[in-house]
Amino acid sequence: MKRTFTFATLLAAVALLAGACSDSDPAADGAFNDADVGFAQDMIPHHRQAVEMAELAADRSTDPEILSLADEIIAAQDPEIAMMTGWLEQWGEDVPDDMSGMSGMDHGGDMSMPGMMSAKQMSDLVDSTGPEFDRLFLEQMIEHHEGALEMAMSQQSDGEFADAIALAREIEQTQKAEITRMRDLLAS
């Protein structure tokens, strides 16, 4: 009887330890928190504005480096917008309205979001062409990317959803490299 009790106790202890040591990372099972929701809800309009800024380059710049950079920004951020929209829909959370890239920021938009351009800044960019556009585009996109870096780093420290944390890391790496490239273009 004592042997059965000891064996049963041993089995229970092993089962308990196995459960405690398992790979039950909450982020791996799709768990998310308020930081994840806020990241997606803020980064979507942030990305939309970057895409709008980049789309302006086709009609306003003749610099192949600027045009290439703008195309890369659009190619990277459009799919990220779709991905984050999908997360919010899956979580039953509100998806930010498409405010045409935020040029309507003068209509009550959230200017407290890091790196967002004001309506005046967007208007100045829209009204410029050639080298003036190139300079404004680079200066504003650097500021915009720096805001995205702040948001991405916050997500990495506060988020729970693995895919959102991975996206934040990707945004950090990509946009740091783009900032370096844009600073080099400004200096040339």
Automatic annotation (TrEMBL):
Residues covered by the DUF305 domain: 36-186
Entries under PROSITE patterns matching the protein: PROKAR_LIPOPROTEIN
Entry keyword set: Signal
Domain of life of the native organism: Bacteria
Extent of the signal sequence: 1-27
Presence of keyword Signal: yes
The name this protein goes by in its record: DUF305 domain-containing protein
Organism lineage: Bacteria, Bacillati, Actinomycetota, Actinomycetes, Propionibacteriales
